[in-house]
Task: inverse folding
């Protein structure tokens, strides 16, 4: 949850969606007591104790509130969660007991639906990704009828563990079957959730269709086709929070609005200075991304020369695979003053990059939703994207950005050529910028869609009980 700790887009969703849903529901969050969470929460009141189960250790259940009154349950277990690194691992390696760490989280969610807090209980669980996906399975095995919605943020991450994990986390032997948690001889947390949840969602309509096909289904396309055929798989596009507004953002060098292109140019100048680029009137391209194969970083590297040959400059910020970090750093070394690279992440610099750049490169091979393209649009930077998943749903070609169908260097170069041509036609460029900036990407629509889905989940519960 971005209020406390995040490793990707899910952190933003977990902070923003519950706040949008509060207009319609009594919403509370459950999160592990990671070191960063405990340090930033301040006072956490212990309101209950959760018993151990199989090899899952017991823990205390804490409760606190954010400054704006959002209720937060915190699992207090130093043994499981008080660690250096990210919530999932350290130095790029997953923690060896992630099966127990996230089985504890899933079981706690199920217990909150069964009275773990004597003052409040969940009527419905909204679960995110494999780390919580065992919750509906625990409910089913205990005979509970609480409905659940499982959202897939990236199907490629499935929480797969050896068969021996079955007994470590207290699953019954008969759960290890095709219609259960078995996945090619191993145990999949995500598959358990996909099978037992009342409703399954993912974070864009296009991605919801893509994952029912073998090429994008990561071995789960058959189960997902079944859920879709029953009307139990939906795509609901993520939004972005209201801080992404160039008129009020305190991170920017100069705040601006649609039509104020001098303000946007001032942010471009700040970015150039910050990355050591030469003064230029040419287009500024940006990459703000995890530096991994999924994000098409190799395609951007191969297409970079086309940007430079067209009079453009390139700034990059992110971290990820060492091969890409090294290749980008080498590119900057070969082209001083024209390419700037920063390995790591800085919030202020990222926002200025969105505000100052003319184009954002995002040639992801697959992208369930994506947020960077929406941030860019809000700040008048036109995304250049591979038409997949949420990128296809948010970028209209030559209206709010540029898209290409074939995930190849050729496809990306062709889109860059069209962007460079548009940069030379200011009336057209500014028209596209204004259209992109006026796109409604708030969470309000998504909150209404989820509310409707919750109602369907209650209906599914009644039908299953019958």
Result:
């Amino acid at each position: 949850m971005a209020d406390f700790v995040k490793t990707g887009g899910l952190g933003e969703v977990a902070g923003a969606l519950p706040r949008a849903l509060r207009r319609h529901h009594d919403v509370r969050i459950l999160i592990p007591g990671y070191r960063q969470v405990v340090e930033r929460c301040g006072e956490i009141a212990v309101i209950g104790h959760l018993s151990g189960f199989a090899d899952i250790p017991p823990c205390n259940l804490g409760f606190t509130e954010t400054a704006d009154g959002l209720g937060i349950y915190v699992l207090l277990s130093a043994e499981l969660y008080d660690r250096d690194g990210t919530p999932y691992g350290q130095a790029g390696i997953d923690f060896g007991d992630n099966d127990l760490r996230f089985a504890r989280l899933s079981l706690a969610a199920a217990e909150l639906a069964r009275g773990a807090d004597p003052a409040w209980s969940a009527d419905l669980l909204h679960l995110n990704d494999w780390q919580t996906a065992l919750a509906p399975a625990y409910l089913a095995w205990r005979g509970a009828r609480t409905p659940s919605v499982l959202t897939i943020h990236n199907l490629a991450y499935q929480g797969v563990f050896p068969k021996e994990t079955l007994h470590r986390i207290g699953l019954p032997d008969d759960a290890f079957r095709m219609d259960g948690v078995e996945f090619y001889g191993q145990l999949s947390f995500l598959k358990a959730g996909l099978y037992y949840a009342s409703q399954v969602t993912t974070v864009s309509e296009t991605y919801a269709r893509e994952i029912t096909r073998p090429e994008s289904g990561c071995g789960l396309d058959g189960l997902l086709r079944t859920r879709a055929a029953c009307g139990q798989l939906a795509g609901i596009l993520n939004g972005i929070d209201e801080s992404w507004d160039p008129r009020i953002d305190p991170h920017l060098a100069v705040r601006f609005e649609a039509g104020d292109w001098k303000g946007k140019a001032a942010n471009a100048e700040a970015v150039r200075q910050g990355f050591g680029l030469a003064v230029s009137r040419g287009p500024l391209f940006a990459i703000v991304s995890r530096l991994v194969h999924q994000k098409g970083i190799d395609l951007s590297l191969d297409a970079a020369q086309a940007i430079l040959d067209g009079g453009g400059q390139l700034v990059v910020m992110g971290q990820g695979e060492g091969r890409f970090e090294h290749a980008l750093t080498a590119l900057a070394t070969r082209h001083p003053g024209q390419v700037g690279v920063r390995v790591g992440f800085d919030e202020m610099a990222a926002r200025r990059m969105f505000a100052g750049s003319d184009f954002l490169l995002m040639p992801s091979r697959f992208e369930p939703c994506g947020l960077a393209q929406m941030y860019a649009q809000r700040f008048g930077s036109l995304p250049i994207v591979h038409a997949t998943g949420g990128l296809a749903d948010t970028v209209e070609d030559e209206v709010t950005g540029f898209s290409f169908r074939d995930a190849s260097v050729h496809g990306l170069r062709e889109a860059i050529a069209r962007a460079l041509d548009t940069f030379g036609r200011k009336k057209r460029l500014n028209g596209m910028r204004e259209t992109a900036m006026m796109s409604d990407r708030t969470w309000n629509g998504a909150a209404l869609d989820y509310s409707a889905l919750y109602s369907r989940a209650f209906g599914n519960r009644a039908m299953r009980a019958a």
Remarks:
- The mean pLDDT is 95.
